[in-house]
């Protein structure tokens, strides 16, 4: 599904479920657990089934976001997008996420980051938010697909998006 001219599409993803097997491990370095690996692959399959391929990826450099992206990428991509691992996305608030997105270049962007900032950012984007209780909590691997009628990400204004889809993983894995 390509983004129409005069539109920008955002695929906004919270990282999948991380592992707490090692309580001494630094938060930044925590990998995905088994459920998270399954969910990230499931997200990739979901995006592929709908033809939702990002052209540019803005990703926190934390281990769990990078691993989420790697698993999604393995399922969804026919061509490799521009990938940017941006330190400011680690534990970013909604304002930082918006500022980063406004600097994106391609029409279809996937952003992978963390709660609580990503939940606040997701809630601020569409004119009407999904009714799902999982949207309000922005559970791990939750993904909002939202379109904006703008020519450049620099023009993005909160509350102006149209929800195309909302994904949450199954509870398996």
Automatic annotation (TrEMBL):
Superkingdom per UniProt: Bacteria
CDD domains xrefs: HP_PGM_like (cd07067)
Gene3D superfamilies given in the database record: Phosphoglycerate mutase-like
Protein name listed in UniProt: Histidine phosphatase family protein
Species this chain originates from: Thioclava litoralis
Organism ancestry: Bacteria, Pseudomonadati, Pseudomonadota, Alphaproteobacteria, Rhodobacterales
